[in-house]
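At this stage, I put together a protein sequence along with its fold in C-alpha cell form, as given directly below:
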Amino acid sequence: VQPRAPIPGSTPTLALGELPGRTLTHFIATLSARDFPICVSAVPKGCQRIQGKDDLLGAPSFKRGALRYVATPENLVAKEKYDKLLGWLRSQDAIVNDKIRIVPSPYGGFGAAVVEEVEEEELLFTVPRSACLTLKDAVTDSQCGEAFSKLIQKAGPGGNTVAMAGFMAKEYLAQKEKDENAAGDSKFGPYLATLPWERGVNSQEHALFWSGDDVGKYLEGTMCFDETDALRSEVDLAIRVINGITASSIRAARGEETEPTGFSWPWEVKQASPGLVDGIDGAVKGAFVSLLTRSFEDGDEDNGEKLVPLLDMLQHSKEPNVSHIMRKDDGTVEVRAKRKLAAGEELLNQYREEEEEKMPKHRFFSRFGFVPGSSVKDIPSMLEDPTSIFYPQKAEV
C-alpha cells in the first residue's frame, strides 16, 4: 500500500496495488464501511495485472490471479458523480443492492461490480419508470413538449428519436448552466452528468464524434461508411431542427433571453446571438450517441425508446451475468443476477447477439462504437486491414 497525494481539500487517498482477492475484498469493505472515498477497478473473475501491458485507452491489461483496486484523483471525481447518480436513483424510489459499486472497468470507462458474493436470482437493482428517460418526458416538457409532439406528427417514427435527443440536449445545456451559474435545473441532472457528451467520456467512442476528414480517412471503403455517412447527415439535420425548437429555452436559462421585468441599462441586457445556440451541436451529437448506444425498447404504445440509468452503464458480453425485465404493472425495470457472482465480479449485460445476422460486428462499431472482443486501440489497425471484419470478404462457394 502506497500513499498518494490527496486532492486539495479532499480526504486523503491511498493507491492500492495487487493484493490477494479475499484480502482486498475485506480491506475495501472495511474502507467502504467507513465511507473512505475509494474507487474500485473491477477485473474479470480471477484476474491480475500484466506489468508493462496496456489495454484499451491506457488501462492496465490483466491475467488470471487477483483483483486490482486503484484510487486516483480522476477516479475520485468520477466517484462523486456516480455517488450522486445512486443517491438520485434512490430518491426516485429505485432499489440498489448495497453490494453494488460503480467502478472503473477493464473494458474501458466505468461499469458496475459487486463487492460481496451475490446469489443466483438475487435482486441487484430496480429502476422505476419515473427515473427512466422516455419519449413522454420529451412531449410533456413544459417548454418544448408541444413543438416536439408536432415534430413527431410530421416526421413519423424517426421523429421520436429526434424529440428525445432534443429534450436531452436542452436539459443537459440547462444543467451545465446551473452547475456554472446556479441557474436552471433538470429532474434528470445527476443522470445526464454521467452520459458521454464528448468523445472519450467514460471511454465512449463513436463516429458521430469524429470530424468529416477522419470519417473519410478511416471509414471510406469499409462496410461502415454508407451507414455512418447517412447517420451523420441525419444528425446534422436534426441539430438544425432541434436548435429551432430549443434555442429560446436554452438562451433563457443562460439569461440571454428574458422577459422584461423592469428598467435595465442597455449594457445590462444580454443579447441573443443568431444562428445555432452555443454548444447545441455537440449536445445533440452526444444525445444521439447515448440513444444509439444505451437505449432500450420501451414496450409502450408509442413503440419508443427509453434510457434506463445504471442498467445502461453495464458493459457488453456475449455471456451476460445479469437478466432484466420490465414489470407490466408499473413499468419498473428489474435487474437480477443470472448466476452466482463472486465478490469483485463486474456486472455484464448483452446489448445484442453477436452472431445476429442483422448486427454483424462491423455494425456493432457503427451503432455502439466498439467491436466485440477487440479494444479501442485495435480499431485503427483493423480499419487499415482489408481482411478485417470492416471489409467485405470473398467466400468459397
About this structure: Confidence is low (pLDDT under 50) at residues 1-69. Residues 225-253 form the longest helix (29 residues). The chain is about 35% helix and 15% strand. The two ends are 60 Å apart (CA to CA).
